[in-house]
Structures are given as C-alpha cells and as structure tokens.
C-alpha cells in the first residue's frame, strides 16, 4: 500500500530558539498542496518557512507535476494561503506564535481552528481578546473579513471530524502539568486519519508522564491506539523535551527519555492486551457460530457470556509488540552542553533507545525529527 500522509516540518523544537517552534504542514499523500493544507500546531510560520525554502526550494516538490507547489518560485506566503485548518493542541506560545502573528495577513480561504473546547476557550479569552491581540477569530460561520479564523471545537466524543481534503481527526485530552495555582493544564492528542486509505497517525501535544500526573490521561490514548496498531496506525509523534539528566522537579509537564521508554512499554502492554481481547472475541464468536447461536445463548435457557477479563500482559509478552511502529521524537528543547556536541534531538533519541534496552525489545523504531524534513508515510 502506498503512503497516506505527507508532512513538511516547519518547526519541531520547543524553544528557546524562536525560529524552530512546533509547526507541521500536512496533507493526504495523494492530494495536491493547493487542495488544502492542515497545519498541525502553529509555532513557527511564514518567516521560518521562507528561510527553509531559500535553502531547499524543492521542499514541497514531489511526483505530482500538476501541484501548484511544484512551481520554481513557490513562496511561504503562497503555501500558507493553502491552509484550510489548524489543529492546535494547547495555547502555549511555542504552539500558536504564528497563528497569532499571521492572523491579520492570511490570504486564501478562511482558516478553521480545530481544538478541544478548553483550548478554544483559552484562545478566545486570553489571545484573540483585543488585549493581547486583536479579536481575529469568531464562531460565526458567515464569512467575515474582520475574523480571519473560525472556531470549530472538536469534542472529546470518540468521533473523527473532517478537517481537510480527505482527512479527519479525533481529539483526546492529555495532561500537561499544572498551573502555578495547582490547576491541571490540558493538552491534546490527535488521531489523524486518511479516510480513503483508512490509515491513521497519532500526534501528541505536550504531555507529562502518567506516573506523576494528578490526572493520568495518556493510558486512555494508548488504549485507543492499541486497537489500531499496526494495521491502521503505525506512526506516532511524541514529545521528549529534555535530556535524561533533567531532574523530575524541572520537567514542567514534559517527558524525558526514561519517561518516553516507560510510556512506550505501557503502549506495548495495551497492544498485547488488545490482541488478546480480539482473540478471545474471535473464539467466542466461533463457538457461538458452531453452536448455531448469535453468541447470546448456547441453545439452552442459559445465556452465554463473553469473557469479562483479559489477563494483564507480562513483560515477557512485550517482545516485538511494537514491531512496525515508528515513533517520531519532537519538541526537543535546545540545550548547550560542553561534553556533547550532537544536535539535541539526536542525543535525546539515542537516550530513549538506551533506556528501552533495559526491558524487552519492543521492536519500536525511534526517529529524531529535524526542522526542514519532508515526511511521507
């Protein structure tokens, strides 16, 4: 089967470099860029993309010669005019900077902001409020030159919603630490689906380890993903902001390599248990069919019951559980180290691999994302 998605990485860092902030331009692999782009996050924007295009004019050039983005003089402004939807995980500045700064300058169709209701509320109350920035977004569906953005909240209801040319998304809340007042701050994990190819990928916003969260929510995301791995979902974008040496007290709602390794083992447990449940259900249906019933009874007056419990997977069952899954590591915060001259994303990815060696070989592939990459998967 061919590729389902194409992403250009405008920015993948989490600061302090303001020219490399979370921003990923997405389309279905078989679509043209001018058909409509989904911007996953909106940290870095037009200026950064123009710099990338100056060094790599072929960044958007693929096999489709009819794609307007294939032209020799494509500009960042043209690319951003193709955006139809923004998927925003949360409202920290490194994820919305270009959404704010470019809000009054966009051309093309009116842009829809897709986010959980709490994220939309934050944008409305603290960003586009005529104080921090002009009120450039509204809920009014009627075309309005004064409001360049249209708020379109995504409910946490298990449903995928159309977000662009052949794409849909499902949003789930995740925990990103606490405010100074001790209140939970939520971010988002998006399941993005190519509706024609019936393939998905999972994209995490900033997230803290379930092991320290006042409201652990990541396992629910893993459980949802496990049902799709590997046939429908084999690609995950996961943050790892800091090196392993970072103390727990200074993670501020983020992951470091030992926590990424622990979370991936949790996912592996969920994958094994999902397979066990499928096998149990298949056995139940087979027995019901053999007995000439629909599974609700065994032909007597006593109803047949589905197995209620699947035993928790032991560590010995995790070997190869994530084979075929690729995890792209994002949101690495640049750090200056006197004893390591490797790029921070590469160093963090290698630390994750080393921490994974302490347990069963999950079979997962760890890839450090770099600014300017073009990913086709």
Automatic annotation (TrEMBL):
Pfam family, any one: PDEase_II
Chain positions covered by the region annotation Disordered: 278-312
Domain of life: Eukaryota
Gene Ontology molecular-function annotations: 3',5'-cyclic-AMP phosphodiesterase activity; 3',5'-cyclic-GMP phosphodiesterase activity
Listed Polar residues bias regions: 290-300
Gene Ontology biological process terms from the UniProt entry: cAMP catabolic process; negative regulation of glucose mediated signaling pathway
Record-annotated membrane-spanning stretches: none
Name of this protein: Cyclic-AMP phosphodiesterase
Native source organism of the sequence: Exidia glandulosa HHB12029
Taxonomic lineage from the root: Eukaryota, Fungi, Dikarya, Basidiomycota, Agaricomycotina
